[in-house]
Amino acid sequence: MRAKSIALMAALALLHGTAWSQAAQSDKTAGDFDPGFLAAIHIGGQAPDGPFSERFGLSNTVGISVYRLEAAGWRWGVHYRFQTGSEVREPGLLENLRDPSGRIIDNEGRIALVTAQQRGTILSLSAGRLFPAAFLSKGSGVLLELFGGFWEHKIHFQNRGNRLTQLDEPHIKGYDRLTGGVMVMPRLGYVHDASNGLVRFQLGVEAMFGRLQPNRVWNADTMTADVGPRNDRTVGVFAAWILRLKARSTDVDYYH
Questions:
Q1: Among residues 65, 69, 195, 238, which one has the fewest Cβ atoms lying within 10 Å of its Cβ?
Q2: DSSP string, 93-146
């Protein structure tokens, strides 16, 4: 009787071990990442380089992305970013509107309070991959991505309570330095997926390289034309909060 009990216990242990081994193997072959669609709200900061540094100072971006993540870690995305900056370094800007004291006079002969700011738009597609590590939680990894798309930037004028005909349409085209063209952006980062599934974020560094063409034929203030194409560049950092879009049978739940 004792021998039968021992044999029964051994058989149960063998079955349990076999089932556990099969489950572990199934989890391993299922991939390191949970596939599906992701949305990300991201921010970043950039420092200008090359000809871009002659026109603008530090800038920041805010935007939204939609990704498709594969089980093997491949990630494809569509992105929109809005770029702003408060420092404009453009030589000769609005110099034809200034009096001998350097002040700008509005249509009524009063001193105008005009500030110049950077504005930009970046539309891009991306392809990249997440690489898991044994010491990271499942779903986390090192990120390598390459972006490609369209980059456009210009000078925006904030005119506080003063009317200047020269800074209204269509005359503003002679001052805004609108420039646009293709860009590529390699990115290195880290994606964190908490084990409880409640926290997902990413952060890292990036460099943007643009081959841009001036879109204005003549600058009214300097009486010159921009020469192109321009090799504008930035280096920066980024961070994003990731939302997983996970479908169930009846509706869509958003996890963050």
A1: 195
A2: TTGGGB-TTS-BB-TTSSBP-EEEEEEEEEEEEEEEEEE--TTSPTT-EEEEEE
79, 121, 122, 168, 247 from 39: Cα distances, Å: 10, 19, 17, 38, 13
Cis peptide before 229 (omega within 30 of 0): yes
Residue 104 lies inside a defined structural domain of this protein = yes
Tally the domains of the chain: 1
Q: Is the pTM of this model over 0.85?
A: no
What's the confidence (pLDDT) of residue 44?
98
Average pLDDT for runs of 10 along the chain of length 256: 45 40 39 89 97 96 97 96 97 92 87 94 98 88 97 93 87 96 98 85 97 94 92 98 73 46
What is the pLDDT, as a whole number, of residue 8?
Answer: 42
Q: H or E stretch including 53? A: helix 52-55
- Confirm whether 256 is domain-assigned: no
Three-class secondary structure of residue 222 per DSSP: coil
- How far apart are alpha carbons 231 and 178 in whole angstroms? 15
- For residue 168, the number of C-alpha atoms closer than 13 Å in the C-beta half-sphere is 6
252 within domain boundaries:
no
Domain-located, residue 25: no
Range of the domain at 66: 43-242
pLDDT, position 31: 65
